[in-house]
Backbone:
């Protein structure tokens, strides 16, 4: 059986006490690898290695060109190992291999290329003053970064953190989610192969509370914590980070809305709504899991949407034709199916859907649940979508914003005025009009309310991963 180890200070290591846990393939429901189980000891060792690489190593002192060259080399190696990286995520969490190969891995390599180039080309403020003083701003690397990641887009979200942190000269300790340790381990190996110095990218495996995750949030030698995961976990990490005044960047849960107006191009709306609700088996923070459809097109939309959902192929995630794989773990399968019982749906009718053999859930469409129903209020994080009719634009905006989350919103309309008006009324960090999930890496990404603190992407990543130093000089 494969053995997945920590990568600390350039070496592959086991935990000091030899502890391991199993890496379960959710399709076979069997362990296919053992994983080193890190605790505070391993997390602290990794932070010490990262600290040493930052304080004494070449990385923060290299030019942007030198660092960029190594980061580009890593991206090239990722392309060359596309299959291995894709299969790692597919086996770890059931992501369909076609999505992993054509979206997750290429986008992960792009994250490195983009942030290396963005850092190299970035300008900084320069404020001449006629009174004889001259001010300019430096962006110094922050230091050691703890990066704590979720399991739904393992490699893609890890690289979204690691790439800008490295590009700006920081060193990193990455803790992948316990369900998806494999691709992070491969990434750390490839980083060493690319020539990125030892200790610059460390990977520690383990769980959250009382394990490696928590240890990475309480260590005073950590200068930044970037976390993606559940809002409740964000609150726990926020409390831990406060003790050391460690700055945090949080990308948390979501309960995205999707508004379809009477004048929408329905072919386009149905096609994106399917992707938004059921892509990655709905295990997406940005998922359009609350559909609101205007009365004039409601019945036609639901009919076409349900037919398209029923046509999505469930199956072995290693099969290139599969669109929906199993849910990532048994625990998650139980959570998601719990949202389909009568109490959670408020006794609403469910079209299609329900549990299938294995840890599969078929695309499930909950028709007009009551406003208090947990399926409508809480993040399900599975292939479950609610559909609620609305009459007016004002009503649609109120319904859309009736959530403590604020990560993503979508709207479909051919009316230009309405598109801008409604987009500008969404309490949401990301709004897509007539599309979904299209990302420009220069743009800020993050959420309002319970969906997060701060933004990452482009210059926003620089703000988080560097310390600004203002220098004023008398000429
Ligand atoms: P999670 O919060 O359970 O775990 C995320 C990571 O945090 C894991 O690595 C886990 O081990 C670690 N962790 C847990 N408790 C910890 C603690 N007390 N201290 C330190 N680390 C701890 O989330 P998950 O189930 O892996 O991921 C799903 C969630 O992530 C959903 O809520 C989803 O919306 C959210 N998410 C958000 C975004 C975004 O960009 N906003 C993207 C993807 C996923």
Residues:
């Amino acid at each position: 059986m494969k053995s997945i180890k920590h990568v600390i200070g350039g070496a592959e290591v086991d935990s000091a006490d030899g502890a391991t846990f199993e890496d379960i393939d959710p399709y076979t429901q069997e362990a296919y690898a053992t994983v080193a189980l890190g605790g505070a000891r391993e997390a602290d060792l990794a932070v010490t290695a990262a600290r040493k690489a930052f304080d004494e190593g070449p990385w923060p002192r290299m030019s942007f060109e030198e660092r960029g060259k190594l980061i580009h080399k890593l991206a090239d190696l990722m392309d060359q190992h596309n299959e291995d990286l894709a299969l790692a995520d597919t086996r770890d969490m059931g992501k369909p291999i076609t999505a992993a190969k054509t979206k997750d891995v290429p986008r992960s390599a792009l994250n490195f290329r983009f942030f290396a180039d963005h850092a190299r080309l970035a300008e900084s403020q320069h404020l001449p003053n006629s009174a004889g003083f001259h001010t300019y701003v430096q962006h110094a690397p922050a230091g050691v970064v703890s990066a704590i990641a979720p399991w739904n887009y393992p490699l893609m979200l890890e690289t979204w953190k690691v790439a800008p942190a490295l590009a700006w000269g920081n060193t990193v300790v990455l803790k992948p989610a316990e369900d998806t340790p494999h691709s992070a381990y491969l990434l750390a190996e490839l980083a060493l192969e690319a020539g990125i110095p030892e200790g610059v990218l460390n990977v520690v495996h383990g769980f959250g509370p009382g394990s490696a995750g928590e240890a990475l949030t309480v260590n005073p030698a950590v200068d930044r914590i970037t976390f993606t995961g559940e809002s409740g976990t964000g609150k726990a990490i926020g409390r831990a980070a406060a003790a050391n005044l460690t700055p945090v960047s949080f990308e948390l849960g979501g309960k995205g809305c999707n508004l379809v107006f009477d004048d929408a191009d329905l072919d386009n709306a149905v096609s994106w709504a399917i992707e938004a609700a059921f892509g990655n088996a709905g295990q997406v923070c940005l998922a359009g899991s609350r559909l609101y459809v205007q009365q004039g097109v409601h019945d036609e939309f639901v009919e076409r949407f349900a037919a398209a959902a029923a046509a999505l192929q469930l199956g072995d995630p290693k099969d290139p034709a599969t669109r929906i794989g199993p849910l990532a773990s048994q625990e998650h399968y139980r959570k998601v199916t719990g949202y389909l019982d009568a109490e959670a749906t408020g006794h609403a009718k469910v079209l299609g859907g329900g549990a299938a053999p294995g840890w599969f859930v078929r695309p499930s469409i909950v028709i007009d649940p009551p406003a208090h129903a947990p399926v409508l209020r809480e993040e399900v994080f599975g292939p479950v979508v609610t559909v609620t009719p609305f009459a007016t634009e004002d009503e649609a905006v109120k319904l859309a914003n009736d959530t403590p989350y604020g990560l993503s919103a979508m709207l479909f309309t051919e009316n230009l005025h309405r598109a801008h008006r409604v987009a500008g009324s969404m309490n949401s960090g990301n709004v897509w009009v007539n599309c979904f999930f299209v990302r420009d890496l220069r743009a800020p990404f993050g959420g309002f309310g319970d969906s997060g603190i701060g933004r990452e992407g482009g210059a926003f990543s620089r703000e988080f991963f560097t310390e600004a130093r203002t220098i004023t000089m008398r000429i």
Observations:
- The first strand starts at residue 2 and ends at 4.
- The CA atoms of residues 69 and 160 lie 18 Å apart.
- DSSP finds 16 helices and 23 strands in the chain.
- The chain has a mean pLDDT of 97.
